[in-house]
Amino acid sequence: MLNLIHARTFLAIVETRGVRSAARMLELAPSTIIDHIRQLEEELAVPLLDRQTREARPTAEGERFLPIARALVKTAERAPSLLSDRRLRIVSSSNVGIYMLQPSIADFQTTAGITVETWIGPNPDAIDRMGRGEADLAVLEWWDERNGFSARTWACEPLVIIVAPGHRWGGLDALTVEELITEPLLGGEPGTGTGRLLRQQLGPLADRLMTIGGLGSTEAVKRAVRAGRGASVVMRSAVYDEIAAHQLVALSLRGIALSKEIKMVVPEALPSTAPAMSFFANTGPERSYPVA
């Protein structure tokens, strides 16, 4: 059985980059610190620290163990509050958190009687917060499959091409890839995974897309598209209101079904009775949006 005290010692060594500094931090003798790491490495059957360098640095195996150790220690530290104050901390990528997740959170708060705290921001930052143990659950546009977590597909969200109603494509239902590469394609927040998805789906033709980035958010992209600056590829749920109000037109890509698998992630160390596990097992998207 993995010892949480040993895991905490490992984290202290990595954070302070030394045995003696970790000993001072934890108020333990250096010999005790060394013994903790020895026992931990024996339990895991891998070397966790590189002893060939002056500073204590994790080995490749140690790097893989870091998020697991952080999640274990954070969960242990939060155990008393989890028992006395049932809260759920959710992190989410911007587009999912803004355009998809809120109805599910509201329903969960009402039916479970549990307060939900949310952090919404760039997908890479949400992953980092999850890895540091700062959240109980994440809902993301992509997940890096790191160790120590369980993930499932929460939704399969279609992507659409959007243009202004007065655009030359405003009366169409679908485009070919050859047509798409003739129009400036506006990009919003970095790190959403949309560019990677387009490269996977379009192959070499993706290199011919006239991508213009730097707008920072999907809201800014929608404003720019409405102003006539070009087209964009966005999650369908992000433009439901604008489509209904005839402020934007949504088109599909002929012969290619563009969609994102929205991932829900929880730490493996969470008990089955934790609010995150209830949300993880029972919650799905509230509605499916029409394209037109």
Can you walk me through this structure?
This protein has three domains: 4-77, Arc Repressor Mutant, subunit A (Orthogonal Bundle); 81-155 and 260-282, Periplasmic binding protein-like II (D-Maltodextrin-Binding Protein, domain 2); 157-259, D-Maltodextrin-Binding Protein, domain 2. It contains twelve helices and twelve strands. It has helices at residues 4-16, 19-26, 30-44, 60-84, 94-99, 102-112, 123-131, 177-180, 194-202, 218-226, 240-244, 275-282, and strands spanning 49-50, 57-58, 87-93, 115-121, 137-140, 149-163, 174-175, 184-186, 210-212, 232-235, 249-253, 259-267. Strands 3, 4, 5, 6, 7, 10, 11 and 12 form an eight-stranded mixed sheet that branches. The protein has a two-stranded antiparallel ribbon with strand order 1-2. The chain has a two-stranded parallel ribbon with strand order 8-9. Strand 8 (184-186), helix 9 (194-202) and strand 9 form a beta-alpha-beta unit. Helix 1 packs across helix 2 (19-26) and helix 1 packs across helix 3 (30-44). The longest helix has 25 residues, at 60-84. It is elongated, with a radius of gyration of 23 Å. Residues 287-292 have low confidence and may be disordered.
